[in-house]
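Entry 14. Structure prediction run on the chain below.
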Amino acid sequence: MARQHPQPRHITLGGREAVALTPEEYRRLVASRRQIGGQSARVRVLAQQAKRTERLLRELEALVGGPQPGCPPPQERTGALEAAECDRHHDTTGAPDTDCLRCAIAALLRRHRDETA
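Output returned:
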């Protein structure tokens, strides 16, 4: 059964209109305000965390940079073949694993950035 919202009792006190609450209604009102305040604080913290995470991702993206010179374009690198394809193209640094990781991280960041745009 749907819960009925109590109808406020309007009174006039000292010439001013007011609403009278029972002690139980007042306790529920105060409890609701506390819950809303707590939820607002949690939302504020989550928003700050989201901003920090976005800033971290932007900085990580700048640090990693894009694909390395000679690396096949992202649309040509798919799944399990990606590492082998990168291995063939990264012979300038002598560390293909590092370059492939950079390519993979850059592609991952681009993919997730595109999802949110």
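The mean pLDDT is 76.
Filed with the rest of this week's runs.
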